[in-house]
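Note to self: user wants both folds in one dump. Writing first protein now.
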Amino acid sequence: MITSWFKSIVIIMVIIIITIILVPIQTILHLLKIRASYLLPMLYHRILLKLFDIKITVKGEINDQPGLIVSNHGSWVDIFLISSVLRTVFVAKKDVSTWPFISFLARLQKTIFIDRNNPKKLMKTVKDIEKRILKNEKIVIFPEGTSSDGNKILPFKSSIFILCDLIKEKNATIQPISIAYTKYNGLAIDRISRPLIAWYGNMNLLSHLYFMIKSGSFDVEITFHNKIDISEKKSRKEIANECEKQIRRGFLSSLKRGI
């Protein structure tokens, strides 16, 4: 059933109230470096997904070891989805660090900002990611470099995978995951309805949020693939290609497009 505009406004107001309540708590947890600072974002995102009427099906086994989570990226909702099932930290493009309020929320979840176009800053960020992994954190990267329209997987950029050379001998892992938005109001999602959940290009975030809530319910499938062995002598491009291949296969399988 299509959600009314009034109900959409009410839901957005509830989200604002919950955010206002939880932000000061997370700020204190973050400043004091209390472990619960990883758990509160998980709770927050689970609540928001419930309000958005987004249902998650998880396939595969979640690896408990610290390391990289490599995912495709089709919407800002991906952040909420992954964070609702994992205690994790995200790597976001540098632009996000300038977004009003969003950048503040991202920092409260210990987000790492990356400038892929600056080799010196990229290496500094890679070393920062390595340090975080050695502190038993899970770090999520989106190798496509930007969000897609949700109908396909964009080619992976291999630059960030230089990190693999640093963590090969340090008991860290890489686990690819596929995210596929599969249903809209109980029916298989198609190219016409997919932009209601996919966020890409120059779409306005607030209007996208409003129309997504107004549209109704969505189903999403998250597939956790087998860990990738990086102890062997593989180049970063080989590892990137292996991740892309697994993620693409899982994505197509979720959408029932065959392999």
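First done. Writing the second protein, which came from a different request thread.
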Amino acid sequence: MAQQGNDNKGSGLRNKIFFTLICLAFYRIGVHVPTPGVDGAAVSEFFNAQSRGIFGLFNTFSGGALEQFSVLALGIMPYISASIIFQLLTSAIPYLEALKKEGEAGRKKITQYTKYATIVLAVIQASGISTWLATQNINGKTLISSGMIGIIPFKIMTIITLVAGTAFVMWLGDQITEKGIGNGTSLIIFTGIAAGIPSGAQNLFALVSTGEIKFIIALLLVIFMAAVVAAVVYMEVAQRKVAIQYSQKLANNPMNSLASSFLPIKINPSGVIPPIFASSLLMFPSTLAQFTDVPWIRGMSESLNPDGVVFNIIFVALIVFFAFFYTDITFNSDEIAENLKKSGAFVPGVRAGKSTSEYIRFVVDRINVLGCFYLSVICVLPGLLTQSFNIPFYFGGTSLLILVGVAIDTSQQIQSHLLSQKYDSFLKGVKIRSRRVQF
């Protein structure tokens, strides 16, 4: 019976993984379904020419759907934007902050508002893209094949299609989170980025075959990339452990195993948010230059060349700014200090309350310096590799951080399921005997 229970639990985890893979397969199929009325070849040629702008950033997150202008061209980006906006507003608007403190019910309400905002953002983005698409051409060839789709104008059909695609991807992410394994939204982004790895490897192999890159250089490059991935994994799981002790009353309780513990603080507390914000802000002038002929905008776009020194300096400065800004908003040291005080815990040598809050904030700020250096190196790395070794793909940056972060999170969830099964099978059938005196 115990073995049968183990098998059922194991099959439950296998079913979750299988369900997740099926959902991701549907997402990848949708990436290749074209939007009605769009000339796919012309759009692909245009986006290849603009691969270094914000179009390239969005195309990476959409798994190539924007380049092909499929029904999932907007992908999950509107939901990500809405989530970030509400995460920032939660600390600025008292009503949202109160909802956050309500627990699960409040979190569901904020998620509902986020989804409404996602649809609004998708409508705005789809409207702008459809209007712009109808006016663009490449080599004298328009990007749309027809101004009317049956009896529906191209712009209206495009808006409906793209918003429906975003809603479908958002729903698919929810299904993975609820019934599969891992975070659905993160896994969708992970799948989109990972889809470009085989083509990058194929391009590198082609360059080695034609002699444009020597084999020894390619081998050293692969070893270097493996080392970088290992370093990113190490930094993403690294923690600064702040020692925590509990009051004497709790420490004397033999049932309490938390008499001496620690408060874990990630080395990179802001995650991938700073590079995403910094990239979007710096790519904006080059994107705006595609829509206008204003001389000073085009001059700004040319000066902010992604391979230039000016771009990298400003990029690093923005990463540092957003890292401290985002951490300051999302990391509430006062709340942590108050919770420690209520639970009878304290930092050795530091007074409870305000002094603890200031100490934790001091530790976080020092850690953030190391986190900013780490993010800056990883995000500037792609441009340096491209210039030095003529690599046919980007390695590093936001994409690498997302790939590693999602992979670590998903593997931890799988390990959590396996550990839960192990303890459930261990406790199954164990009879708890009463210690009361039997007469």
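Dump finished. Worth passing along: The domain at 237-395 is CATH 1.10.3370.10 (Preprotein translocase SecY subunit).
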